[in-house]
TrEMBL record, chain A:
Keywords: 4Fe-4S, Cell inner membrane, Cell membrane, Electron transport, Iron, Iron-sulfur, Membrane, Metal-binding, Repeat, Translocase, Transport. It comes from Thiothrix caldifontis. One of its GO terms (cellular component) is plasma membrane. Part of a membrane-bound complex that couples electron transfer with translocation of ions across the membrane. Residues 443-478 have a biased composition (Basic and acidic residues). SUPFAM superfamilies: alpha-helical ferredoxin (SSF46548), Nqo1 FMN-binding domain-like (SSF142019). InterPro entries: 4Fe4S_Fe-S-bd (IPR017896), 4Fe4S_Fe_S_CS (IPR017900), Ion_transpt_RnfC/RsxC (IPR010208), Nuo51_FMN-bd (IPR011538), Nuo51_FMN-bd_sf (IPR037225), RnfC_N (IPR026902), Soluble_ligand-bd (IPR019554). Binds 2 [4Fe-4S] clusters per subunit. GO terms for molecular function: 4 iron, 4 sulfur cluster binding; electron transfer activity; metal ion binding. The lineage of its organism: Bacteria, Pseudomonadati, Pseudomonadota, Gammaproteobacteria, Thiotrichales. This is Ion-translocating oxidoreductase complex subunit C.
From TrEMBL, chain B:
It is found in: Cell inner membrane. Belongs to the NqrB/RnfD family. GO terms for cellular component: plasma membrane. Its main location: membrane. It is an enzyme of class 7 (translocase). GO terms for biological process: electron transport chain; transmembrane transport. Its EC number is 7.-.-.-. It comes from Thiothrix caldifontis. It is a multi-pass membrane protein. This is Ion-translocating oxidoreductase complex subunit D. The modification FMN phosphoryl threonine is found at T151. The lineage of its organism: Bacteria, Pseudomonadati, Pseudomonadota, Gammaproteobacteria, Thiotrichales.
Length: 496, 333
């Protein structure tokens, strides 16, 4: 298959050998699970259980709220010991709504109702079941998958692309999933394609994963509509818009979705979750993640129940080799810093990395020398150096005009910057400022609207009051006149 | 462990220091050859110029209250001094080097705000200031055998200026192989074309520079030279002379490609290079100086912000005007 070249990109050392040969293992049952109610983009789920309830594995713990949301299910059987707050799987470590579950050790499934044949269902029913299973984008974006499966209603789709690029260094969980569960992943992919109503399926896998490519090819032999394509190794190949461009040569319009050009992209781990939901009726209660980095004693790929503390995961990997300089959720290019090891694992966490000072290679920021390395590296055709300079000067309009909202925060610019300027940090700051400015403007507009409405209402009241008074006055005058007339009449009659 | 750290959590390992160091490595062969060729006076001028730059940089940083050690260790002052020394006549008096160093660092760089802020190439600012202020010292050249004489381009300029045709004095010009190897008179570092080319290729290989500026600069210059030489070979020197003599290769790979003062986008760099090439030819051929690289680069430096403003890369998912791509009416559906 002919591939197309994407602009820019970088070639970070992939460090995947640390964990690529480690088969997926199940993490032993932890003593306590802290399950946050917001593990997805959109509205947080609403608790459906209370303290003291006994729940079975896969039982609903919290309901989805609104169009873009996802429900949460019990990762194992046990007793709800708390519906309260716990530090989030987020750099801030702020307390968020969390259900705490004490496993009873039986790991007993709730009664499951898988459909006899997923392909006999209505496509909309598949999306409904995916939504009910709490499945979100498992590549890290955590966008509710059902919403993406329903895109056929609004777009004319032709291709499902499976993003097996896994271009982030260190991460090997998708690699292992595609190697070990290739048949199941293919089943999930076929169900998703059926739900989307598309025939054409392309599975893109970077060339540093030859075994995964072979396994997926093997599993897909029976289906001529599925193509497994080797991708050149270049970060950010896994950015869905760039992946689609590599495979089809089509660029997704700015501010648009890949669906605008008829393509939907899903992750192999999501496909596996969809398969479990549709073929076995199981909701999403666990996920595979890579635990790696120079500071980890024994890097591994683990299947972890959602809500397991990061500390439990690290303990299973024999703990730290040395005190990590940075603890990260996700990959080193786009992952987030974790405040400490108490936080729970969540649906979007595809890796836990404990990096040493050498790996992080932190350095003091120095002035920009305009070397244009960032311009060459940017896969979106932006001018990171100009954007950062304007962001630093607080010139938000200029940054926006330079394409701030077209930035995918891939980090290629910061990665190559010889002056160690934290470019992504500047852009995140500017994006945050822009969002808060928009919120403030929205609030202002709303307030203005409400005030105007109130003024109108008051004026209308005033008018009505006045009219009423005038009417009364007229009526009173009429009455008086009538009375006077009557009196005059009586007087006349009397005098007559 | 600080929490307010954004991704990425890894780095390519490139640094300003290593970038400067690689440029120096690339310059080393031609420099060593030049120093060997011109001997002790050249070596002392080279050292004085570099030391002058470091001294001026340290003083300026001290006055501005910036951390002296941090900025000195990036190596940019040394590189500026190095490039300036390469563009001076090897036998120029020591104070030319020292004065040039102060001009380069203080007027060329620090008054703009230091590293990364200067509009003009500091070494070229100094060279041009010296050339205009001290024309005698700056145009006294020594050939390899120790005899003083004009540079190749200077010689051609003088002769053709007196109405002699090129063919009447070809014998007095150095051979192509002499020019290629550097057995000619000229600035310290601009004599050996082969070694400069080698250094330039090294920079390309190490991805310190991209091909855009050298290719468009040399392409424009040589195309013009070729066309003009074809029109009248008696007045206009050949392509080889333009390529191998003067500061052509030093300029194309080391001066015009200066990171700070050249445009950032590929298109911008092509325009910048072409502009330099054009100006070099025009100055060499019709203006008052036999060699025009320094002037050409400075003039193009002046328009770099303009080039950067108008020639930006196309943003992903947008057309050249910045509007989102529209497939509904386009050819893709």
């Amino acid at each position: 298959m002919k591939l197309f070249r994407i602009r820019g990109g970088v070639h970070p050392h992939d460090c995947k050998t640390l964990s690529a040969d480690k088969a997926i293992e199940d993490l032993p049952m932890p003593s306590l699970l802290h399950i946050p109610l917001q593990q997805h983009i959109g509205a947080a789920a609403k608790p459906a259980v209370k303290r003291g309830d006994h729940v079975l594995k896969g039982q609903l713990l919290a309901n989805s709220q609104g169009m873009i949301s996802a429900p949460i299910h019990a990762p194992t059987s046990g007793r709800v010991v708390g519906v309260g707050h716990y530090p989030a799987h987020h750099a801030s470590g702020l307390s968020v709504h969390t259900i705490t579950l004490q496993p009873d050790g039986k790991d007993e499934w709730v009664e499951l109702f898988p459909p006899a044949d997923p392909f006999a269902l209505d496509p909309a029913e598949i999306a409904t079941r995916v939504a009910a299973a709490g499945i979100v984008g498992m590549g890290g974006a955590t966008f509710p998958s059902a919403v993406k499966l329903n895109l056929r209603n609004r777009y004319s789709l032709h291709t499902l692309v499976i993003n097996g690029a896994e271009c982030e260094p260190y991460l090997t969980c998708d690699d292992r999933i595609m190697r070990e569960y290739s048949a199941n992943v293919i089943d999930g992919i076929r169900v998703m394609a059926y739900a989307l109503g598309v025939e054409n399926i392309i599975i893109g896998i970077e060339n540093n994963k030859p075994q995964a490519q072979a396994a997926m090819r093997e599993a897909a032999t029976a289906f001529p509509n599925i193509q497994v394509v080797g991708l050149p190794m270049r970060y950010p190949m896994g950015s869905e818009k760039h992946l689609v461009q590599t495979l089809t040569g089509l660029e997704t319009p700015a501010r648009g979705l890949t669906a605008d050009i008829g393509i939907v992209v899903h992750n192999p781990a999501t496909a596996l979750a969809v398969r479990d939901a549709l073929c076995e009726g199981k909701p999403l209660v666990s996920r595979v993640m890579t635990v790696s980095g120079g500071a980890i004693q024994q890097p591994r790929n683990l299947r972890v129940l959602l809500g397991t503390k990061v500390q439990d995961v690290i303990d299973y990997c024999q703990g730290f080799r040395e005190e990590p300089t940075r603890l990260i959720s996700g990959g080193p290019m786009m992952g987030n810093v974790l405040p400490d090891t108490r936080v729970p694992t969540v649906k979007g966490c595809n890796g836990i990395l404990a990096l040493t000072a050498k790996e992080v290679s932190e350095n003091q920021e120095s002035p920009c020398i305009r070397c244009a390395s960032c311009v060459q590296a940017c896969p979106c055709g932006l001018l990171p150096l100009e954007m950062a300079a304007n962001a630093r000067a607080g010139n938000l309009d200029a940054v926006t005009k330079l394409g701030l909202m077209d930035c995918i925060a891939c980090g290629s610019c910061s990665y190559v910057c010889p002056a160690h300027i934290p470019l992504v940090q500047y852009f995140n700051y500017a994006k945050g400022e822009l969002a808060s400015r928009q919120r403030a403007k929205h609030k202002q507009d709303e307030t203005k609207r409400l005030i105007e409405q109130r003024n109108e209402r008051m004026a209308a009241q005033e008018r009505a009051k006045k009219e009423m008074m005038e009417r009364r006055k007229r009526e009173a005058a009429a009455k008086k006149a009538a009375a006077a007339a009557a009196a005059a009449k009586t007087a006349q009659e009397a005098s007559a | 462990m600080s929490l307010l750290i954004s991704s990425p959590h890894t780095h390519s390992g490139k640094s300003v220091h290593s970038t400067m160091l690689l440029v120096m490595v690339a310059l080393a062969p031609a420099t060593i050859f030049g120093l060997y060729l011109f001997g002790l006076p050249a070596i002392s001028l080279f050292l004085i110029t570099i030391l002058g730059c470091v001294l001026a940089e340290a003083m300026a940083l001290k006055i501005m209250g910036k951390p002296v050690g941090k900025y000195l260790s990036d190596g940019s002052a040394i590189l500026t001094g190095w490039l300036l020394a390469m563009s001076l006549p090897p036998t120029a008096p020591w104070w030319i080097g020292l004065l040039g160093a102060f001009l380069a660092i203080i007027i060329g760089k620090q008054v703009f705000g230091g590293i990364g802020q200067n509009l003009f190439n500091p070494a070229m600012v100094a060279r041009v200031a010296l050339l205009i202020s001290f024309p005698l010292e700056m145009t006294t050249w020594v050939t390899v055998d120790g005899v003083s004489g004009a540079t190749t381009l200077g010689h051609i300029r003088t002769e053709t200026g007196q109405g002699h045709t090129l063919s009447s004095f070809t014998d007095s010009l150095p051979s192509v192989s002499d020019m290629g190897l550097g057995m000619i008179g000229g600035s310290m570092g601009e004599t050996s074309a082969v070694l400069l080319l080698l250094g330039g290729l090294f920079l390309l290989w190490k991805r310190i520079i991209t091909w855009h500026i050298p290719v468009s600069l040399l392409g424009t210059l040589l195309l013009l030279a070729g066309v003009m030489h074809a029109i009248n070979p008696n007045v206009y020197p050949s392509v080889e002379v333009h390529l191998l003599a003067g500061a052509t290769l030093l300029g194309a790979f080391f001066i015009a490609t200066d990171l700070v003062t050249s445009p950032v986008s590929a298109t911008g760099q092509l325009i910048f290079g072409a502009g330099c090439g054009l100006l070099v030819y025009v100055i060499r051929t019709w203006a008052g100086y036999p060699e025009g690289m320094a002037f050409a680069v400075l003039l193009m430096n002046a328009v770099t912000p303009l080039i950067d403003h108008y020639f930006r890369p196309r943003i992903y998912g947008r057309d050249r005007k910045g509007e989102p791509l529209n497939y509904a009416s386009g050819e893709n559906k």
